[in-house]
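Propose amino acids for all 817 sites.
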């Protein structure tokens, strides 16, 4: 019966809900989240307070960490010793805390993920800055509460004379919520506090001028400011951090990448291991060595790059594939009056300012109370000095008393009668005790003078303290001065740089901007080839086999860099873009990949012209068609091309595009060359700018059966190289082609004996030529081996052709590549 009377029916759903909420609130309030006022979790606060109570100040010897952990467990934190020691260690790590609060001696871990030594081996004491968190704690600046067994009192919050929550940041995972506050520069944080004290309505832009963003203990680079702005405004945001790197040149044309700072909370050893894996797996091509040359307190990770490899591309690949570029999710979550809240930077700092005002107010009230109590004692002592002859008389209030209690009562009595004369007493009990404790030396003239000076000083102090309590402006002045004192004593230079770029990678950032030869066959097969696979030969050679073909002929060959966009112009007047590095790189004897894999061409649509193009380069595009029409269109109209293509120009029936060139300064002349060996040169200004839909104007009047095969933009100092289908070629100065009016028949550019012209291109002395025949033979030769001859000359043999073969096309390889 008694047992049944103790059983109470409980709804299990309600009990589970209530128990879970109790547990969740315990984790949130008592373990995982920092207080908005001092930026500390309970365990951190208890460790610092216990170390102060134990006298472990910076001017005292270190003490074993095991002793500190033991006293914290015994007095304030009845949980696991590992959690307490881990917290102690973290507060001592200069790579975890921007401004460490514990001064550790011994092995406290490293950025390579090494654990700290056992607590019996390490020693610790408070850092100088930690004293600023604890300063005036015994002056009634904060509330105290009972510890877990009510045997001691512990502070609810620390006075925190600097904004520790954002200075050292905080990380914690509670139940259903998490906080991730990055560290900031102490000087900048105090500047932001001072701004909001002066103008609480300061704009976010003004706050960002004082507090531009996080400042991590390991340095690094923050990419972009939008994530910072969003976090400061809403309490949530994401920033990208990358390692600080420098590219250094070495002898022999080699180079190396040196990392001197790493992102916050990144394990350096694991990243070095990851880089080595990427090199082994051929993801990083061009790295010859990876080593960690870091010493104590100094980061130095070296990645050596082989000769010819682009260190900037390798650096971008390291950022892309390792934690040397990482994201940091900011969540400004803290306890406000015991409740978790997500705060913007303004609200967070205003809570801290309110705390400081309360701390200074309470300290001032405490100091005032103490000063008034001391003044009361001094006033009693000074009266006692005036009555010393009465007090020390054998029948006076003291010597006539039987014990201290009676003597105190005599002094506290309103009057005392001695030898028939009445003397005023009326001392308070505190004054009476002070008089009874007086030593004879205090009756000397010097001591009496000191009492008078002390009374005067106390009155001034009391007046000043009362003025602070009565004037919010005076109180703010005290807060401001003390913050500035902390700033002057502890502030240092910012370690983390902030860049405007957001750190996102384009595909070209991860690919070296190397030169390539791009070929397109009549059958639509496309490939990208390293020019070095075609070794240079002397003029008149047979060349090497460029591609194995069966009834397929290479009709277009261009030289382009990997970062270029290749524009494909078709017989329908449309243009399609394709990045050069997206074209598969293949050997010189392979067929390539079909164009249909890259571009959505219509069934009867074929490519008639190719142009390497970079949108960042200014200038217009000049077009020439097979039937002799020319057009000039601003390059801006081709900067935002869709993969599905756009109309580039209108074409008459039977006409097609044969050439496109990019104008540089706009002072060049246009040169059109026909298959029959005619050429016309006219000023580019004769071709007005037109939109993409326009057909253009007549550039050359063609003879029956003739058609345009080449377009170039030239100046008098240029040299033109002409090549014919019979394999002949020559160089001719552009100056030999006089300016004519647009629309004429032109003048002869090559002898009829040389055969039909297939190409004309502007060249320089140190360039190379790449010639392709219909049967797929390819020869690379220096331009300087082609002689300079007059307009009507036939030229010399460039390539020895097999029977039935003919020169199909050519491309210039610039000297710089």
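Proposal:
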């Amino acid at each position: 019966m008694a047992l049944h009377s103790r059983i109470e029916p409980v709804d299990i759903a309600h009990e589970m809900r209530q128990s879970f909420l109790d547990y969740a609130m315990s984790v949130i309030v008592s373990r995982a989240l920092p207080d908005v006022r001092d930026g500390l979790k309970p365990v951190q606060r208890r460790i610092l307070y216990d170390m102060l109570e134990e006298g472990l100040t910076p001017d005292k010897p270190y003490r074993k960490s095991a002793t500190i952990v033991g006293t914290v467990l015994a007095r304030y934190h009845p949980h696991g010793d590992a959690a307490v020691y881990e917290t102690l260690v973290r507060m001592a790590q200069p790579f975890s805390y921007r401004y460490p609060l514990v001064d550790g001696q011994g092995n406290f871990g490293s950025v390579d993920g090494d654990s700290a030594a056992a607590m019996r081996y390490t020693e610790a004491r408070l850092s100088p800055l930690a004293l600023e968190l604890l300063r005036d704690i015994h002056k009634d600046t904060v509330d105290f509460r009972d510890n877990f067994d009510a045997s001691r009192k512990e502070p609810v919050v620390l006075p925190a004379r600097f904004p520790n929550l954002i200075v050292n940041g905080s990380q914690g995972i509670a139940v259903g919520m998490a906080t991730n506050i990055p560290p900031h520069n102490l000087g900048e944080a105090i500047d932001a506090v001072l701004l909001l004290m002066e103008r609480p309505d300061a704009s976010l832009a003004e706050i960002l001028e004082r507090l531009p963003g996080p400042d991590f203990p390991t340095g690094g680079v923050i990419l972009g400011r939008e994530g910072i702005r969003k976090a400061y405004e809403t309490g949530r945001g994401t920033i990208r951090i990358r390692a600080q790197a420098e590219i250094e040149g070495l002898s022999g044309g080699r180079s190396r990448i040196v990392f001197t700072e790493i992102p916050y909370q990144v394990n350096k050893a694991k990243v070095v291991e990851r880089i080595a894996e990427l090199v082994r797996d051929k993801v990083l091509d061009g790295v010859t060595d990876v080593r960690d040359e870091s010493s104590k307190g100094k980061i130095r990770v070296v990645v050596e790059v082989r000769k010819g490899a682009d260190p900037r591309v390798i650096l971008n690949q390291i950022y892309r594939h390792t934690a040397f570029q990482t994201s940091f999710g900011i969540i400004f979550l803290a306890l406000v009056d015991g409740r978790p809240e997500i705060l913007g930077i303004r609200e967070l700092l205003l809570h801290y300012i309110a705390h400081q005002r309360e701390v200074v107010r309470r300290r001032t009230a405490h100091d005032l109370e103490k000063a008034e109590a001391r003044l009361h004692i001094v006033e009693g002592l000074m009266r006692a000095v005036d009555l010393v002859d009465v007090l020390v008389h054998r029948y006076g209030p003291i010597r006539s008393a039987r014990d201290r209690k009676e003597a105190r009562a005599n002094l506290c009595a309103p009057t005392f009668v001695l030898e028939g004369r009445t003397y005023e007493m009326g001392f308070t009990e505190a004054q009476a005790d002070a008089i009874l404790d007086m030593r004879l030396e205090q009756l000397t003239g010097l001591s009496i003078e000191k009492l008078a000076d002390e009374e005067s000083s106390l009155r001034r102090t009391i007046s000043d303290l009362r003025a602070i309590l009565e004037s919010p402006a005076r109180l703010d002045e005290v807060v401001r001065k003390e913050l500035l004192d902390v700033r002057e004593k502890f502030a240092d230079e910012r370690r983390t740089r902030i860049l405007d770029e957001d750190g996102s990678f384009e595909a070209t950032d991860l690919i070296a901007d190397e030169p390539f030869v791009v070929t397109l066959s009549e059958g639509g097969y496309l490939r990208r080839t390293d020019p070095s696979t075609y070794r240079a030969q002397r003029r008149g050679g047979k060349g090497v086999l460029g591609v194995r073909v069966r009834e397929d002929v290479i009709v277009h060959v261009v030289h382009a860099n990997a970062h270029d966009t290749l524009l494909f112009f078709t017989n329908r007047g449309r243009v399609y873009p394709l990045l050069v590095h997206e074209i598969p790189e293949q050997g010189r004897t392979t067929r390539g990949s079909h164009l249909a894999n890259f571009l959505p061409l219509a069934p009867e649509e074929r490519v008639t012209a190719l142009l390497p193009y970079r949108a960042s380069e200014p200038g217009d595009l000049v077009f020439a068609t097979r039937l002799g029409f020319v057009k000039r269109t601003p390059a801006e109209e081709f900067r935002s091309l869709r993969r599905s293509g756009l109309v580039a120009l209108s074409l008459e029936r039977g006409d097609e595009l044969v050439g496109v060139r990019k104008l540089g300064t706009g002072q060049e002349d246009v040169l059109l060359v026909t298959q029959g060996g005619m050429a016309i040169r006219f000023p580019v200004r004769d071709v007005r700018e037109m939109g993409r839909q326009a057909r253009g104007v007549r550039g050359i009047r063609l003879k029956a059966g003739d058609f345009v095969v080449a377009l170039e933009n030239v100046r008098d100092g240029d040299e033109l190289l002409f090549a014919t289908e019979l394999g002949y070629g020559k160089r001719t100065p552009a100056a030999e082609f006089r300016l004519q009016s647009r629309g004429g028949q032109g003048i002869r550019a090559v002898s009829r004996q040389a055969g039909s012209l297939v190409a004309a291109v502007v060249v320089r002395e140190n360039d190379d030529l790449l010639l392709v025949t219909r049967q797929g033979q390819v020869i690379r030769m220096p331009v300087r081996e082609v002689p300079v001859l007059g307009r009507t000359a036939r030229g010399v043999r460039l390539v020895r052709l097999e029977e039935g073969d003919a020169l199909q096309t050519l491309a210039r390889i610039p000297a710089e590549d």
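Residues 66 and 119 are 5 Å apart (CA to CA). The longest helix spans residues 345-386.
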